[in-house]
Amino acid sequence: MKTSWYQKWFAGKPVPNFTAIKTKAEQGDADAQFTLAVSSGFAPGGGPNDAETAAWYRRAADQGHALAQFNLANMYACGRGVMLDDAEAARWYRQSANLGDAGAQFQMGKRCQRHGLDASKTDAGDARIEAYKWFRLASAQGYKDSEAHLERVNLMLTREELDEGQRRAAVFFASARED
After folding, report:
1. How far apart are CA 38 and CA 130, in angstroms?
2. 113, pLDDT greater than 80
3. With contact defined as beta carbons under 8 Å apart, do 108 and 73 qualify?
4. Could you tell me the maximum CA-CA distance found in the chain, to the nearest angstrom?
5. Which end of the chain is less enclosed by CB atoms within 10 A, N or C?
6. At 32, which CATH number?
7. Is there a single domain that holds both residue 91 and residue 109?
C-alpha cells in the first residue's frame, strides 16, 4: 500500500546507526568523530558528557575538521570538558577561521577588537586591522552580528588601516578560491 504524504511528513526520522559511526570514528573518519562529539554531548542519562565530547572534537579537529575546531575552541574558552585555556581556545579559533568557518572568524574578530581597544599596546592598530578583516570575512558569509561589529571597528580605523584591512580580506578571499 502506498504511503500518503502526511504519513511521510509525520513519520519519525530514522535513528542513525551509532555502532557503525563509532567504528568509522575509531578508524579515523573525521566526520564520524565530529558526529560522535555532537551526540556524546548527551550521555545516556540525558546529562552532558563534556570530557568525551571534547575528546571526539579533538580527534576530528586534529584532522582539520573546521567545525570541530570551532567547537573545541568554545570548550577551551568556557572550560567545558577541558581545562579553561584562553591561549588554546585562540589557537583553535584561528585554525578554524583560516579554514573559512564564519563563527570562528567572528570570534577572531571579537578577540582582535578587544586587543585593539588597548591604545597603550604597540600592536593595537594591527589588532584593529585584523578585527576588520575577520569581521569582513564573517560578514561575507552572513554570520549573525558580524556586519554590526564590522561597522563599529570601521569607525575606529584610519583610512590607511581600513585600506589594509580590505587588502587582507581580499587576500584571504583570493587564497580561499584557489584551494
Report:
1. 31
2. yes
3. no
4. 75
5. N
6. 1.25.40.10
7. no
Decide which of 152 and 16 is more confident.
152
Q: Which of 42, 67, 99 is the last residue of a domain?
A: 99
DSSP annotation of 48 reads -
Residue 5 lies in a domain: no
Q: Which domain covers residue 57, as residue numbers?
A: 16-99
pTM given for the model: 0.84
Q: In Å, how far are 1, 12, 37, 81 from 5, measured between CA atoms? A: 13, 13, 34, 43
pLDDT digits (tens, 9 = 90+) for 121-170: 778 889 999 999 999 999 999 999 999 999 999 999 999 999 999 999 99
Of the three residues 99, 121, 136, the one that is the final residue of a domain is 99
Phi first, then psi, for residue 70 (nearest 5°) are -60, -45
Residue 164 counted as domain residue:
yes
- Summarised one tens digit per residue, pLDDT across range 47-58 is 568 999 999 999
pLDDT at 45 over 60: no
7 inside domain: no
C-alpha cell at 100: 573559512
DSSP string, 69-132: HHHHHHHHHHTSSS---HHHHHHHHHHHHHTT-HHHHHHHHHHHHHHHT-TTSTTHHHHHHHHH
**The amino acid at 172:** F
